[in-house]
Amino acid sequence: MGITEFSFPTAIRFGAGARHDIPTALQNKGIQRPLVVTDRGIVALPFFQALLQELTQAGLQPSVFSELGGNPVKSQVTAGVEAFRQQSADAIVALGGGAALDVAKAIALMVHHPGDLFDYEDGKPDGRAIDQPIPYVVAIPTTAGTGSEVGRSSVISDDETHAKKIIFSPRLLPQRVFADPELLLDLPPKITAATGMDALTHCVEAYLAKGYHPMCDGIAIEGVRLVAENLAKSVADGSDLEARSNMLMAAMMGAVAFQKGLGVTHSCAHALSTVYDLHHGLANALMIPYAMQFNLQAVPERLARLATVVGADEPTGAGFIAWLNALKAEVGIPNTLTEAGVAVDRLDQLVAIAFADGCHPLNPRPCTADDIRGIYTSAF
After folding, report:
1. Which of 71, 103, 260, 295 is the most buried (most CB within 10 A)?
2. Are residues 315 and 358 in the same domain?
3. pTM value?
4. Do 362 and 352 touch, CB atoms closer than 8 A?
5. CATH number of the CATH domain containing 114
6. Are residues 108 and 244 located together in one domain of the fold?
C-alpha cells in the first residue's frame, strides 16, 4: 500500500514514508520556526536526526523540546511553553507516543491562554474558556496506542498528587497527522504489546459504552478486528510493516470511537497509573478481562459479537474474555496485578481514585465503589 490521504477527523497522510512530506506541509502554511516536541528516548534515534535535517534543508529553523519521559505531568507543559516562547516558535511538531502528543497539545493550548493549565480542566465548574489562538500543530505518532494524534483532549497529571486531569476542546485536534508505520518498526515487544492493548481497550470500551452512536460502534468493531489480526504479529516480528500499518490505523480508530465514551477498565487503569505510575496501556491490558467479566451480565450480546469479530473459540461473551486472556499471554502481558508488581495494600487508594474517575459513568453496567473493589480484587 502506498501513501494515502483522507480527512477524518482531521487531515491524515498515512503510509510508509509519509513523514518525508512534513517539511513541504509546513512550508505551505508559511511556518518557519517549528518547535519539535518529543521525548528523550526518541531524540537518540536515527530517524529523529534525519527528520530534523530534512526540516533544516527545507529552509526551516526547527528547535527541540524533549524534556519528557513516562506519564505526562504539568511541569513538562510549563517548560515546553517557555521553550516555545524562547525560540519564537510559530508551530508545533508533536512526535512520539501518547505522552509526547498530549504534552504537545497542552503546550499549544497554553502558549496564548492565561493562568494555570488545570484552569482549563474539562468539566471544572469555574473552568476558563478555551478561546484564544492555538498554534498550528502537526502530529506524528510513533506508537500504535492512544491515538492521541486524532484526539481532541490531552491527559496531564499533577506533579504532586499524580491525579490525571483531562483538558478537552475540539480546537486541540492537530491540524495535520503524518501516520508513518516505518516509525514503529522495531519498537520493543513490550511497548508494542502495551500500546496495542491500549488501542484494543479503546475500541472495546467505546463499543460497549452507553449511548446511541452507530458510527463510533462501526469504527470500534473494525478497530478490534485489526488488533485481533495484527497485534501478535507486530509483537512477534517488529519489522512486519503491514502489521504495523494496521495497528497504527486501529489506534486512530480507537481514539475516534471513544468520543462515544469509555468505561470501568479505564477508570481502574487511570488509578493504577496514578498510584503506581504504570504505563497506561499496560494498566488497561491488566484490567480489561476482569472489567469485561463484570460487564458480561449487562451486555452479553455485544461481548458475543466481539467474540465473533476476533474469531474466539466460543462465539459468546465468555469466549471473548477467554480470547483476551489468551492474547495477553501471547504478547507477554502479565495475567494478574500481583504478577505486575501491584500490591494489594493500596487497594483502598486505588478504589477511591477509580471511583472518582470520569470514565466509568458511561460503562454499560453501573459501578459502585464496592463493584470497583471487586474488579480489582479479582485482578489480584
Report:
1. 103
2. yes
3. 0.95
4. no
5. 3.40.50.1970
6. no
Q: Domain limits at 206?
A: 188-379
Last residue of a domain, one of 159, 183, 207: 183
69 and 170, same structural domain?
Answer: yes
CB atoms within 10 A of CB 146: 26
Residues 29 and 10 in one domain: yes
Give Cα separations from 324 to 81, 300, 333 (angstroms). 41, 15, 11
Q: Which residue has the cell 499524580?
A: 162
Task: Give the residues across from 31 on adjacent strands.
Answer: none
Shared-domain flag, residues 47 and 136: yes
Q: Which of 104, 306, 97 is nearest to 217 (CA)?
A: 306
Per-residue pLDDT of the chain (380 residues; tens, 9 = 90+): 789 999 999 999 999 999 999 999 999 999 999 999 999 999 999 999 999 999 999 999 999 999 997 779 999 999 999 999 999 999 999 999 999 999 999 999 999 999 999 999 998 899 999 999 999 999 999 999 999 999 999 999 999 988 888 999 999 999 999 999 999 998 999 999 999 999 999 999 999 999 999 999 999 999 999 999 999 999 999 999 999 999 999 999 999 999 999 999 999 999 999 899 899 999 999 999 999 999 999 999 999 999 999 999 999 999 999 999 999 999 999 999 999 999 999 999 999 999 999 999 999 999 999 999 999 999 99
Total number of domains in the chain: 2
